[in-house]
Specification:
123 residues, mainly alpha, two-stranded antiparallel ribbon
Length: 123
């Protein structure tokens, strides 16, 4: 099932939170994303129905293998774009914000070219 931009944002947030905490709860997602509990609950339901996450009886949110692969791809795009923008002289905060907007629309070809350029021009 294809995933929308908002779903990608949730998956990326769950991935980042799972690297910070032993388990991720809906309230953690609410706090990180600044969304209301009902909005997060609805999104988590859609992600669960799509096979991207599981939610156990204690409320712990976990990425499935499919969800993890999607989240890692989006996070990699985010980090690649952030790095490229900071190398151009953009502040870290602005680079990260811009990367967050672009990461959902940029083609695989362009991301691959940026990664190749960054690798070839390491300082």
């Amino acid at each position: 099932m294809p995933i929308q931009e908002s779903g990608e944002m949730y998956l990326e947030t769950i991935l980042v939170l799972s690297r910070e905490y032993a388990y991720v709860r809906a309230v953690d997602i609410c706090e990180r994303m600044g969304y209301s509990k009902p909005s997060v609950s609805r999104a988590l339901g859609l992600l669960r129905d799509g096979g991207f996450i599981t939610v156990d009886s204690f409320g712990a949110v976990r990425l499935t293998d499919v969800g993890l692969a999607e989240a890692e791809q989006i996070y990699d795009r985010h980090m690649t774009l952030t790095k490229a923008f900071t190398l151009l002289g953009v502040t870290e905060a602005t680079a990260s914000e811009d990367a967050c907007r672009i990461e959902h629309y940029i083609s695989d070809e362009t991301i691959a070219a940026i990664k190749k350029h960054l690798e070839e021009n390491k300082k």
